[in-house]
């Protein structure tokens, strides 16, 4: 790999790019809004457009908020498609609508550029540790070619099928996480209202069938009243909107997802869009007029 173009260095992209630099790769980095001095100090070359990042690279990685940003950075003015060489590989690691992954992939294929959708799960701590779970859609041979690079950012890298299947897998992940937090919230609100210490409920059930990564990660935050993100409510709204759109296009009713979407919308209206998604508990607390916190 001669040089990697990295576009979008926010909460996730920045530590991912830094892990690639530490692994010895040469990077050309671009972000439309964020300052990149710290990444430059580590040895990356900063460039002034996605087009320029692509022109200097044989692998281009994007880590952007949502579908419109990915279309802008790859297919828009001064975008990747204007600078990329034939035979290069573009890997979009953002969580976006699977239909847009396929659209972008097809547009790049017309220029003989290869494309994979490779969203991640694990959040900022795992982006920093290089232990993300990465789910990859697209051609298997292209996947095998870039897998060593992905393994510098993640500890689990799984090829899930054709183009768009990475983002379908990520939508499934986001539905499960949102519904799981809502279930935990409903159950703990009941326990507290019934007069049982929530810490003891957590200790008693975490080793049983109700135990989960969500339970272990979110209950301690809830008990401390710590709703600092993590993963913001507004990003989960974006993912559930993509899940609802994709499900409805396919004729798949998703009643529980629709319900949790309304909970997230209520939190946003209540000024909590930038809270961690564990703030779902605050919706239930308000309904039941109680608080699920550590008993001092
Ligand atoms: P972020 O908003 O912190 O970072 C996005 C970066 O993209 C910003 O620095 C922004 O300036 C830049 N950007 C926006 N439009 C651009 C454009 N057209 N060209 C170049 N740069 C542009 O978001 P994040 O938290 O790093 O998330 C990135 C993606 O990863 C999202 O799809 C998100 O859903 C997903 N994700 C986030 C987490 C998390 O815990 N934060 C976990 C898993 C997956």
In short:
This protein is an alpha/beta fold and 296 residues long.
Question: What does this 3D model show about the protein?
Answer:
Helix content is 52%, strand content 13%. By secondary structure, it is an alpha/beta fold. It has a six-stranded parallel beta sheet, with helices on both faces. It has a three-stranded mixed beta sheet with strand order 7-8-9. Helix 4 (67-75) runs parallel beside helix 6 (98-109) and helix 9 (165-193) packs across helix 12 (233-249). The longest helix has 29 residues, at 165-193. Bound molecules: nicotinamide-adenine-dinucleotide. Residues 7-13, 31-34, 50, 63-66, 69, 72-73, 94-95, 120-121, 123-124, 231, 235 line the site of nicotinamide-adenine-dinucleotide (NAD).
List keywords for this structure.
elongated; 6-stranded parallel beta sheet; binds nicotinamide-adenine-dinucleotide; 3-stranded mixed beta sheet; alpha/beta
Blueprint (SSEs and pairs):
Layout: E1 4-7, H1 13-22, E2 27-30, H2 37-41, E3 45-46, H3 50-55, E4 59-62, H4 67-75, H5 80-83, E5 89-92, H6 98-109, E6 114-117, E7 120-121, H7 123-129, E8 132-137, H8 140-150, E9 154-161, H9 165-193, H10 198-205, H11 213-224, H12 233-249, H13 255-269, H14 280-288
Parallel strand pairs: 1-2, 1-4, 2-3, 4-5, 5-6, 8-9
Antiparallel strand pairs: 7-8
Helix pairs in contact: 1-7, 4-6, 9-11, 9-12, 9-14, 12-13
The protein binds nicotinamide-adenine-dinucleotide.
Order of helices and strands: EHEHEHEHHEHEEHEHEHHHHHH
Radius of gyration: 20 Å
Ends: how far apart?
A: 55 Å
* Uncertain residue ranges: none
Tally the beta strands: 9
Q: Name every ligand kind in the structure.
A: nicotinamide-adenine-dinucleotide
The outline comes out as elongated
Strand content: 5-15%
Structure annotation, total helices: 14
Strand order of the largest sheet: 3-2-1-4-5-6
Helix share bin: 40-55%
Most strands sheet: 6 strands, parallel
The chain-level structural class is alpha/beta
Mean pLDDT: 97
